[in-house]
Amino acid sequence: MSDPLSRFHAVIPAGGAGTRLWPLSRAGSPKFLHDLSGSGHTLIQDTVARLRPLVGERIFIVTGVRHAEAIRAQLPAVPAAAVLVEPTPRDSMAAIGLAAAVLEARDPDAILGSFAADHVVIDQSAFQECIREGVGLAADDHLVTIGITPTYAATGFGYVQSGRPVTGFPTALHVRQFVEKPDARQAAAYIATGEFRWNAGMFVVRAARLLDLLGRWHPQFAADLRAIAAAPERLEEMWPALPKIAIDHAVAEPAADEHAVVVVPGAFGWDDIGDFSSLAVLLPDPGRGPRVLGERDLVHALDATGLVVPGSQRTVTVLGLEDVIVVDTPDALLVTTRERAQDVKALVEHLRDHGRTDLI
Amino acid sequence: MSDPLSRFHAVIPAGGAGTRLWPLSRAGSPKFLHDLSGSGHTLIQDTVARLRPLVGERIFIVTGVRHAEAIRAQLPAVPAAAVLVEPTPRDSMAAIGLAAAVLEARDPDAILGSFAADHVVIDQSAFQECIREGVGLAADDHLVTIGITPTYAATGFGYVQSGRPVTGFPTALHVRQFVEKPDARQAAAYIATGEFRWNAGMFVVRAARLLDLLGRWHPQFAADLRAIAAAPERLEEMWPALPKIAIDHAVAEPAADEHAVVVVPGAFGWDDIGDFSSLAVLLPDPGRGPRVLGERDLVHALDATGLVVPGSQRTVTVLGLEDVIVVDTPDALLVTTRERAQDVKALVEHLRDHGRTDLI
């Protein structure tokens, strides 16, 4: 059989508002459309660039009506047909499942990898090495997830627990279970075992295998996706009836219970940039003063650390504050602390409650 | 002799950049041109309104070339001739002395009161009562200062120490000495004696008496001021040679050493708004959330106290910060704490050092 990598396709679900990154990220301009790593490219541009060496032109992006145009503008080299537009948001199982059904119809041996549009990876070659192993495992009909080696006892991610190694592969391990986001004590206990890794929501699997697994627990869902792939003109009609469920709950967790999932450990520097505190960690440390996402010359700080995002061409000055977060945009300013970064979500709710939907 | 109040003139020196109130106050737009009390009027407009019941039209404003136009625009009811323009800044003795010389030339019995353009007074009628007593004392040839009853052990003001009462006046006391800004321990000790009051830089005195006193320690200075008043066309030529000295050092302190100064205690709620922390105290307490100078609807705060100045029409959000100061202007943003409010001056120096004179 041919090199499985030649049958490997990347599927990039591009959704989610990133409420905790307000006012940078907005409902109309979610985080994958922004340069949050200071790379000079947006997160979705970086995601595509990272996958190119593995898949070449074999890329699908699945997104909502609202963002399709911005995505095409940011990725002129991606063919228009590669952007699958969901009529309405239906969570990750429908998004990835639609791509799987389209791929299966073209090639029953097609392998897909799903990668969120808004994650950051530091070591690109380590990432690619990991995915290559995952593709080999998928060709053997495993459902593969990537488990990120934890660098601290994170409470913002779910975890995947591994068991014995997979014979014939350099690093892969059988998955014992997926677990939800833990509290701090539980997270520390997970780390101590050495068996738990962060669930980064990356899956590599044969397209047909994914739909077959889905069909075991949600037969109508799998059948509907295959029907849409066979008759794309039915998308608008059938889409609204699809279940709104994450791929983790629909397939990965029940499959793990049946020992059908394997994990490839990844230690390539990864983050989903869940809030401004994790964004700060990803940015280069200037040695003194706050980290800056944007034009450093616009920021003047004395006795201050944290993160400043000068996003309105105005000068931002900070005096005498540790771990402060200042995000300056043309119509809204946020001042908070790294400690309260998760609660930016509550602030956005507060704005909604006060009728300021124009800002969110 | 006529009621001395009919010979009483207000002199308002309008100068000083108010560096600690950057970025609200700028070199080109000092604090007296801003509404810092939330009254809907600028500080100089409030100052003039406060003095009107005492002096009617008998007002002089002494200011620099750079601000004369803005002052005339803010005070259309003040005659153009009432705005004396200094060719260059020469500190308070020259500014008040020039007004004194002009007044003396018109009326040897004229009494003047000097009141900074950028101070805040809460209880207007108590203030007026105080000044009326001062005018009576000035008519008896005293040099009168107003001593503010301290409400806390301030280290940001100089103090005036009083001795025995002045016979024939309800509240006035003889001055023993003026003292410089104390440290915290010294300030507490001053307060404990009951003899010390804040030196608010307000003086009431016969114009001729002020110039005579000045003539004792700086004869050439007094002679030059009188020469300018006699021949106003010589202002430009003579002004640059005048000493750059504060009225406190030039006259008030040496006069106190000769027991020639009296103090009228004032308990009318006063502040010179030296920094954002004292500005915060002056603004109404909203009960919860930070105090706001400006449009309250632009500010959304959760678990936050301090001061927000929304000065650019943008929405300002603050989450999880106690005693924070956020000052938003169209071209510059300041984020600091009440504790560090005094150090805003250092931040402005930092901007100057980095060539950002456009912002200061």
Automatic annotation (TrEMBL), chains A, B:
Signal peptide: none annotated. Gene3D superfamilies: Spore Coat Polysaccharide Biosynthesis Protein SpsA, Chain A. Residues 10-280 form the Nucleotidyl transferase domain. The keyword Coiled coil does not apply. This is Mannose-1-phosphate guanylyltransferase. GO terms for molecular function: mannose-1-phosphate guanylyltransferase (GTP) activity. The keyword Transcription regulation does not apply. It comes from Nostocoides australiense Ben110. GO terms for biological process: GDP-mannose biosynthetic process. Keywords: Nucleotidyltransferase, Transferase. Residues 301-351 form the MannoseP isomerase/GMP-like beta-helix domain. InterPro entries: GMPP_N, ManC/GMP-like_b-helix, Mannose-6P_isomerase_type2, NTP_transferase_dom, Nucleotide-diphossugar_trans.
